[in-house]
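Checklist before submission:
- one chain only
- standard amino acids only
- sequence pasted in full

Submission:
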Amino acid sequence: MKKIFIFILFISSYCYGQEKTHGYPLNVESVLAKAGSNRAQLEKAILYFKRSKDPLKLKAVYFLIANTDIHYSVDYYLTDNAGKKIKYSEFAYPDYDMAVHALEEIKSKAPGINAQQVVLPDIENIKADYLIDNIEKAFQAWRGSITKNIPFADFCEYILPYRVSVEPIQNWRSVYQENTNGAMIV
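Returned file contents:
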């Protein structure tokens, strides 16, 4: 009987993560401990949602923060033969052809350019204002659309995330809302 009780206690604490340190669930505290100087940004987002008195939004920020240590952005920059960074952004051009033309022009002036990969861990780089904005907009989309009746766990997995893959962190929800004339985008 004692073994069963210990097993149930272990499973429930593992599955639900209800033990807290510093007022945070253990999985959140674990990420905060790894966040280094960015911990203050993550705690700022938590505090915002604690003050909002919306328990689902607080759970949402905990969900995102608990998962930030496994997400990152991959970006690139160009360097010349001497390793000097070359100023170029494909997004600074109105269309693909102009971006390619500009890159070809750079190549003709600086032969031997190289692409340098940069990995930016979310745990070290994501800002409180970004998390807050993303959560608020995700809740608007969830509560104001045909998806309003899906379970919270599904909301967390499919509507709440702020990224799809390893793209740079972007304010994509606002861009989509602008491009759809304010329609709620899930």
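Reviewer check: Confidence is low (pLDDT under 50) at residues 5-19.
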